[in-house]
Design a protein that fits this description.
By secondary structure, the protein is of the alpha/beta class. It has helices at residues 2-56, 58-62, 121-129, 152-169, 184-193, 211-216, 226-229, 236-239, 260-269, 287-306; strands at 81-87, 90-97, 106-110, 133-137, 177-182, 201-205, 247-252, 274-279. It is 45% helix and 15% strand. It has an eight-stranded mixed beta sheet, with helices on both faces.
């Protein structure tokens, strides 16, 4: 009898121990579930936070203004004039570098997002050797221009103001003006060119199709709703379809910043007359050095073929 009581007690004790284990397992699952909800909630909040930062802070990612002027055209023995162009009670600064022949074609140059006029005297000297007068401008926020931080609308306004300066103040015929844009400056140049079909020609170097596509080129950004996030669209691939001026596109085959396939897409979308030159082994910032004679001769032929000054 005693043995039976002991056996029953042992069974009862085992059942209570098993029930306790089941209860602990259930509590652990509940805790894990709560932890999962917390982690998911934090991730969602972080994702939304990043989306908001990208949407409302993207100008800080796109534009990298520099007000340090490292060099001037004087370094290359070029005569130049400081130019101040008024815009919305502000001003943009530029350098007018005339060729000795007053009727020479004019090149209006737009630099990229991380540059300023102080980086360009060497490029201006190169253009001057091609018998071009050159206007370099800094967008607001860059160089000596007013310090207001740039955005897409403002750089377009600055480009418009530079065009007005050339055509009205200097009374240069649109048919004698070429626009040249490098990188982000290419998007600015395309936007200006579609407004002035009478201009001599458009030249781009290392530019992109749209800000959405260049963002999508970075795999990390593909995780985000780019259509909603991107407000600075720089939609060149759409705009270039309505271009009515001769087009010359340069791009480096080894460009890791803006891939060469974007140049091909821009070329395919643009109407005739057009020309695409992919420079072998050239990267984002050395197309003219890597291109050498091919670059210079192509640019010279394009200017001679389309400038009114070359065909008076």
């Amino acid at each position: 009898m005693i043995d039976n009581l002991i056996f029953i007690n042992i069974i009862d004790t085992g059942d209570r121990s098993q029930s306790k284990d089941i209860l602990l397992d259930f509590e652990d699952l509940l805790m894990l579930k709560k932890l999962g909800f917390i982690v998911t909630g934090v991730c969602v909040i972080l994702y939304i936070f990043i989306c908001l930062i990208l949407r409302f802070g993207q100008t800080k990612l796109i534009f990298q203004p520099d007000d340090l002027i490292k060099s001037t055209p004087e370094k290359y023995n070029l005569y130049y004039e400081d130019v101040w162009i008024a815009i919305d009670q502000e001003k943009i600064h530029g350098w007018w570098i005339p060729y000795r022949q007053k009727t020479a074609p004019v090149l209006l140059y737009f630099h990229g997002n991380g540059s300023n006029n102080g980086d360009l005297p060497g490029i201006a000297a190169m253009f001057n050797q091609l018998k071009l007068s050159v206007l370099l401008i800094d967008y607001r926020g860059y160089g000596k221009s007013s310090p207001r931080f740039p955005n897409e609308t403002r750089v377009y306004e600055d480009a418009d103001a530079a065009w007005e300066y050339l055509t009205k103040k200097r009374q240069i015929k649109p048919q004698n003006i070429f626009i040249y844009g490098h990188s982000l400056g290419g998007a600015i140049a395309i936007n200006l060119a579609i407004k002035h079909p009478q201009m001599a020609g458009l030249i781009t170097e290392g530019t992109f199709t749209s800000m959405k596509e260049i963002a999508g080129f970075n795999r990390a950004f593909r995780l985000f709703p780019l259509d909603w996030i991107i407000t600075q669209r720089f939609d060149s691939i759409t705009k270039i379809k309505s271009l009515q001026t001769p087009l010359l596109i340069f791009h480096g085959s080894a460009d890791q910043t803006i891939p060469a396939y974007m140049a091909q897409k821009l070329f395919n979308a643009a109407p005739e007359p057009k020309q695409l030159v992919i420079i072998p082994q050239a990267t984002h910032n050395n197309v003219h050095q890597a291109g050498g004679q091919e670059y210079f001769q192509t640019l010279q032929r394009f200017i001679q073929a389309n400038s009114e000054a070359a065909h008076p």
